[in-house]
């Protein structure tokens, strides 16, 4: 199982106070489950999915490429998704899904783009000879639904080198309108480097904070340029974490986004999330001990962000576990057009 992590808000405060690295590591097995799909008649459109598919580290679902593909396709069709963001995706997974969806004789067609974060990883060999690893975006429609001329890959800051962290974006037609679709996978690692002089505090290298800030800056630019923006991905941070503030347009944030699952009062906790409120930096867990054996408690680390000016009536839902599909829950979202 792939190892994932997120830093709890209280733990982060303790880290800076004590100059210690405190992390929560997540490894889980979960995925799309059609039985718990919300009542589609009561949810607005457009519809979105974000899902970390754990392509390299997780075992292939039911040991079959076709079984994996069919499970993903069923999740997309069951939700009638207009835009789908997938992370930790092997190149062979992408081509398998792409080829199945771009010209199928029945059902919705999907156009797609892909971006690499690793030139090769051994865990992708089970999907084919090309072992590249990265992110993908799928938009409902025939080829050309995604404008490949607008495709961009922005490399995010990495003070502690590892897998390339990127923001993959492209303009896409969604329910007849052009949006800027962006997908990312934020690092979870914080690294504390001790100084030789014991009197000098250690240096804390914060990959997530720097990466999220750059994602916020780039997507704010798209929004200010007039594009409705849909930003999704695995952020490896809890909603109230200080690192997430550059994204949210409320709750002490400085960003331009609302999040799909921010108004479900079942997940409002703490004095800053009163039941009397309409929204909160919160949401249903996308990783939890039952599906994520090394998660110490449930936590939301996957998101679907929608630019506040363009969207309203947001809704979100984390799918139930399907062991063997991934180490994350699939996240569904929906919204209505504001303008």
From TrEMBL:
Annotated Endonuclease/exonuclease/phosphatase domain residues: 49-328
Keywords of this entry: Signal
InterPro entries found in the cross-reference section: Endo/exonu/phosph_ase_sf, Endo/exonuclease/phosphatase
Domain of life of the source: Bacteria
Signal peptide positions (record): 1-35
Name under which the protein is recorded: Endonuclease/exonuclease/phosphatase domain-containing protein
Organism (species): Streptomyces amritsarensis
């Amino acid at each position: 199982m792939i190892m994932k992590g997120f830093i709890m808000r209280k733990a982060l405060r303790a880290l800076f106070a004590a100059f210690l690295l405190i992390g929560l590591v997540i490894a889980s097995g979960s995925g799309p489950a059609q039985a718990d799909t919300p009542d589609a008649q009561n949810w607005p459109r457009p519809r979105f999915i974000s899902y970390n598919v754990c392509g390299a580290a997780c075992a292939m679902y039911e040991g079959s490429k076709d079984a994996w593909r069919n499970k993903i396709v069923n999740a997309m069709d069951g939700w009638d998704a207009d835009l789908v963001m997938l992370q930790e995706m092997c190149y062979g997974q992408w081509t398998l899904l792409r080829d199945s969806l771009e010209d199928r004789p029945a059902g919705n067609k999907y156009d797609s783009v892909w971006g690499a974060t690793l030139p090769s990883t051994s865990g992708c060999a089970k999907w084919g000879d090309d072992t590249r690893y990265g992110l993908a975006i799928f938009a409902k429609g025939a080829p050309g639904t995604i404008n490949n001329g607008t495709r961009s890959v922005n490399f995010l800051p990495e003070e502690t080198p590892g897998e390339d962290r990127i923001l993959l974006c492209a303009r896409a037609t969604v329910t007849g309108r052009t949006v800027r679709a962006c997908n990312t996978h934020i690092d979870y690692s914080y690294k504390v480097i001790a100084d030789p002089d014991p009197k000098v505090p250690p240096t804390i290298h914060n990959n997530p904070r720097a990466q999220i800030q750059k994602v916020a800056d780039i997507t704010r630019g798209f929004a200010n340029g007039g594009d409705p923006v849909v930003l999704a991905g695995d952020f490896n941070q809890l909603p109230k974490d200080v690192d997430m503030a550059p994204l949210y347009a409320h709750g002490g944030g400085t960003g331009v986004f609302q999040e799909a699952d921010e108004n479900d009062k079942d997940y409002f906790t703490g004095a800053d999330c009163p039941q009397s409120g309409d929204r909160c930096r919160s949401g249903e867990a996308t990783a939890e001990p039952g599906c994520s054996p090394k998660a110490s408690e449930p936590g939301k680390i996957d998101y679907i962000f929608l630019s506040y000016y363009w969207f309203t009536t947001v809704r979100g839902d984390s799918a139930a576990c399907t062991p063997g599909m991934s180490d994350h829950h699939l996240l569904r979202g929906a919204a209505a057009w504001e303008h």
